[in-house]
Amino acid sequence: MLFSWMQLAVETNRLALESQIVIWTRLSQIARGRGTPAESMLMVSEKVAAFAEATATVAAGGSAHNVVKGYRKRVRANVRRLRR
Q: Fewest beta carbons within 10 Å, which of 50, 54, 59, 65?
C-alpha cells in the first residue's frame, strides 16, 4: 500500500514537471511572437479532452494511477511536438 502511494506521488511529480515544460515552451513561443491562434485553440481543446478522458477512466472504475498515466501520455506528446 505504501509503495503504491509513493509510486503515485512520483508519477504525479513527473507530470507536474513535464507540464511546466509544456507551459514554458508555449509561453516563450507566444512571447517571441511565434504563437498561433491554432495553438491557443489546441491548448484549450486538449485540456477539455484530457478532462473527459480522466472522467471516463474514473467512471469506469479506473484508479488515480491510470488517470495520471493518461495525462502524462498527453503531456509527453505535447513536449515532443512543441520541441521540434
A: 59
Distance CA 61, CA 31 (A): 42
Distance CA 56, CA 53 (A): 5
Total residues found in the chain within this entry = 84
All 3 cell numbers of residue 14? 513527473
Using only C-alpha atoms, the chain has a radius of gyration, in whole angstroms, of 15
CB atoms under 10 Å from CB of 41, counted, come to 10
State pLDDT tens for residues 29-62: 999 999 889 988 999 999 999 999 999 999 999 9
What pTM was computed for the model?
Answer: 0.85
Rounded Cα distance between 52 and 58, Å, is: 10
